[in-house]
Amino acid sequence: MSGFDTYRRRFLGGVLGVGATAALPAGLLFWQTAEGDVEDGPPASGKVRWGMLVDTTKCSTGCDACVRGCDQENGLSGNTSPTSPQWIRKVQVTNPRTDYSFSLPMMCQHCEEPPCVDVCPTGASFRRADGIVLVDRHLCIGCRYCMMACPYKARSFIHHPVTDQLPEVPRGIGCVESCSFCVQRIDAGKRTTACQDACNAEGHQAIYFGDLKDPNSDISKRLASYGGQEVLASLDLHTGVRYQGI
Amino acid sequence: MSTRFRRTWGRWLALAALALAGFAPVPLQAAGSGVSGTQTSRVPLPNVSDAKGEHCVMPTEWMRKNHMELLLHHRMTAVHEGDNQAADKFSIINCVNCHASAKDNSVAGPGDFCQSCHAYAAVKITCFQCHSSKPSGAPPAFHPVVPQGPVDKTSSATVMRYQAFHGRMPNLDAKLSAKDLAGVMR
Asked: What domain count does chain A have?
């Protein structure tokens, strides 16, 4: 992080210097533009940790509204072939001893100790300050170590050229990608994910999204009241996605 | 340093300047004067005229030299630090919003703003393997007048843009007003 700070400070010094010289002949407008950027935007902060709670007792078998909502929000094709990127998969789980069967969405669990980040040779796989695990596609070389390291098989590789991407969700051939907790929405100030909206629109209300560090958030209250389990909790990855009823 | 030495050097410099002036290529002069579209050389001159609004977010001369530094810096702040791309005047989204051509609504097609200059300079441009080369829903704040094109309600791209911009699906049965579609279609 300090590398970025150093870079940012040096760069902004340069921009402001140029802005100051430009302001003299060209009026104050350019100066305001350059200065406005310094103060702009709420950056990802360690004061929050984004998390998700899935109530499997409300998740309906056969329903894939969350998958479709995710595809639409992020510009995915919706294909489910072995080489098609899938950010959410609906999984049917059955206990062979009791025949108790339920359905759940499986996606990137946004671990606190992500194995994908540990193995990435270029630093492309990283965990943001607010707990979202992402791939920096500028740095990704497509080696797919992270896909092998992920115990949840949550990551996909883009095998084919992509066209008509959504402007807010850049994605292209040769990179690994996975659920981003709709990071483009969060950075724009929204506080819901596309899968959550789609699930609510279907009337199931099985997905809750919010700040795990805020004790007054809806998700924290639900976790305090009903609990929530991590998948493969024995790995001690401290996932950001929790499940009820598994 | 002796006067004689300085004079000798001065003569050499003058000779070199003359030689350079004699060999100065025509296309460089044309490109320097900002004329585009005229065919005065073997290679087509870059198209630098596709831009909306009155001026760029920084002085044009500065941008010509330093736009790659801005993009490099903002890729750090956008991906790692989570700066809001819609509010960021220097984001690549806003570059595309202003510089997309009227011809194919893109910056990366042949003859378009980014592609033509990069072809002229022989610098490979890979941004648009991942980034959208077409304008997004939200027009830049300082360009209020956005031409509105015909509305194709059946296009899935329109619906996706609408959803991305408004955060909800459009009601396709109702008639969409111009206000609803501002920033969605252009």
From this structure: 2
- Three-class HEC string of B24-89: CCHHHHHHHCCCCCCCCCCCCCCCCCCCCCCCCCCCHHHHHHHHHHHHHHHHHHHHCCCCCCCCCC
DSSP A212: T
Per this entry, what is the length of chain B? 186
Task: Please identify among residues 143-162 of chain A the ones whose CB lies closer than 8 Å to any CB of chain B.
Answer: 161-162
Range of the domain at A17: 2-38
Residue matched to tokens 């946004």: A110
Nearest Cα neighbor of A137 from A90, A174, A168 is A174
Q: Domain count for chain B, please give it.
A: 2
A30 touches chain B (CB under 8 A): yes
Please report whether residue B170 resides in a domain: yes
- C-alpha to C-alpha distance for A57 and B56, rounded to whole angstroms: 54
Within a domain: residue A45?
Answer: no
* Cβ distance of A168 and B87 shorter than 8 Å: no
For the full predicted model, state whether its pTM sits above 0.80: no
Q: DSSP 3-state assignment of A15?
A: helix
Domain that holds residue B88: 43-133
The B-side interface with A (CB below 8 A) comprises 55, 57-59, 62, 66, 69-70, 73, 75-90, 93, 96, 129-132, 134-137, 157, 160-161, 163-164, 167
Q: Are residues A82 and A144 in the same domain?
A: yes
Q: What is the pLDDT along chain A (246 residues), one digit of tens a residue?
A: 445 565 666 666 665 555 554 444 444 444 334 433 333 346 788 899 999 999 999 999 999 999 999 999 999 999 999 899 999 999 999 999 999 999 999 999 999 999 999 999 999 999 999 999 999 999 999 999 999 999 999 999 999 999 889 999 999 999 999 999 999 999 988 999 999 999 999 999 999 999 999 999 999 999 999 999 999 999 999 999 999 998
